[in-house]
Specification:
Length: 200
C-alpha cells in the first residue's frame, strides 16, 4: 500500500512537472516569436528602403512594412505594416486600409502592446512618419475617446492629418470593446527624403 502511494505521488509530480514545462515553453515561445518577427520586419523594411518595395518579412506573410512611426518624447520607434487585420496587428501597428497613400492617414495598434504609449501622449508631442518616399513631422493636437457604436472614423481625402487609434480603456481586462482612443496630429509641413539624416 505504501509503495503504491509513492508511485501515485511520483505520477502526480511528473504530470505537474510536464504541464509546468509545457506552460513555460509556451510563455517563452510567444515573446521569442515576437522578437524574431520584429527582426524580420525590420530587415524587410531595410530591403524596401533599398529598392525592394514588395519585400515581405517571411515568405508566407500577407503584409509588408510600409512606414516607420517615431515619437521621440516617448522613445517610440515602430515599423508600420500594410493590411488592417488582427493577424497583422499582432506584429505591429497597421495602416487602416485605403489610408497609406492619402493625406488623411489612420494607423491602429493594440492598446496593451505597440500603442500602449498613447496613454502618455500629450498635445504638442511630435510624431514622425517615414515612408519609402518621404518623412513628415506631425504635432499632436488633441486626444478623444470615441464610441464606435455611435461614431465612425471618417476618412476625409481633403484633410491633412495623422490619426493614431487604439482600444480604450488602456487597463481593461477585456479585449476589444466599443471604445476607441484617438490621437490626432497635424502636419508641420516638414517634408524630407528618408535617406537623408534629419534632426529631431
Amino acid at each position: 500500500m505504501k509503495n503504491s502511494r509513492h508511485w501515485l505521488s511520483a505520477a502526480v509530480l511528473l504530470t505537474a512537472a510536464f504541464f509546468s514545462l509545457v506552460l513555460l515553453t509556451r510563455a517563452l515561445w510567444i515573446p521569442a516569436k515576437a522578437e524574431l518577427a520584429q527582426w524580420l520586419i525590420e530587415r524587410s523594411w531595410k530591403d524596401a528602403l533599398n529598392g525592394d518595395p514588395e519585400s515581405r518579412p517571411w515568405p508566407w506573410a500577407d503584409t509588408r512594412p510600409v512606414a516607420v512611426l517615431s515619437v521621440p518624447q516617448h522613445e517610440v520607434r515602430q515599423v508600420v505594416l500594410e493590411g488592417n487585420s488582427g493577424r497583422n496587428l499582432a506584429f505591429g501597428p497597421v495602416f487602416v486600409d485605403g489610408t497609406l497613400d492619402g493625406r488623411d492617414r489612420i494607423i491602429s495598434g493594440h492598446r496593451d502592446t505597440h500603442f500602449r504609449f498613447l496613454e502618455s501622449v500629450q498635445p504638442g508631442d511630435r510624431v514622425k512618419l517615414t515612408t519609402r518616399q518621404s518623412t513628415q513631422w506631425f504635432e499632436v493636437r488633441y486626444m478623444e475617446v470615441v464610441d464606435s457604436r455611435q461614431e465612425e472614423l471618417v476618412i476625409d481625402p481633403g484633410t491633412d492629418r495623422l490619426s493614431l487609434v487604439t482600444c480604450y480603456p488602456f487597463d481593461s481586462l477585456r479585449p476589444g470593446g466599443p471604445l476607441r482612443y484617438v490621437v490626432t496630429a497635424i502636419p508641420l509641413n516638414r517634408l524630407v527624403n528618408p535617406r537623408q539624416p534629419s534632426s529631431g
